[in-house]
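Why does this matter for the project? Reviewers at the last site visit asked to see concrete outputs rather than summary tables. In response, this paragraph embeds two records directly. Each consists of the residue sequence and, immediately after it, the corresponding structure tokens. Nothing has been edited or filtered.
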Amino acid sequence: MTKRDIAEALAKTTGLSNKDALKIVNIFFESIKDELVESGRVNVRGFGTFKVVLSKPKVARDINKDVEIHLPPRYRIKFIPSRLFLEELNA
């Protein structure tokens, strides 16, 4: 499912134009991104929680040159589904 698909579903259920629905969807995702950058956590009740976590540094191998590469820690986004969402998914 893409943002456009979400916007079309929103437009269909609310009577909004596709253009207005897409604006709302874009604002929604921008708000989530902004909050993750600012606080590192977004909780959507009944759906789940998005958290920013720092991964550990890793050692990889360049198979072409046969040398080790040290990868620095990186920020990643972890999604933890809510209990209600998991129950519905596994029903």
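We now turn to the second protein, recorded in exactly the same manner.
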Amino acid sequence: GDLVGTIELPMAVGLVGGATAVHPTAKACVKLLGVKSAQELAEVIASVGLAQNFAALRALATEGIQRGHMGLHARNIAATVGAVGDEIDRVAEALVKEGKVRMDRAKEILDDIRRRNT
């Protein structure tokens, strides 16, 4: 009954030179991750890949990948337009219900929610 995941990603990963040495965002990400070697960075990359695969499996096993993806996308759009806390769920739910998962519509819904609460 255990779920076991493996992933093989043939890619070159390095920390010496290149973007990780000169690009400010790349440097900040490496520092934030706390990785000290290319092996550690590769393990993080593989972990992210496994997490994404696990999320896809969950979506397939529960509500279906399309519906699950649309709900996740709607939540991301809601947060992007400034929704916080339970506003995110309310905006996302309205977007999915309408079938209009768009930034402009999310902003309209959020503004409407906030108008009603004041």
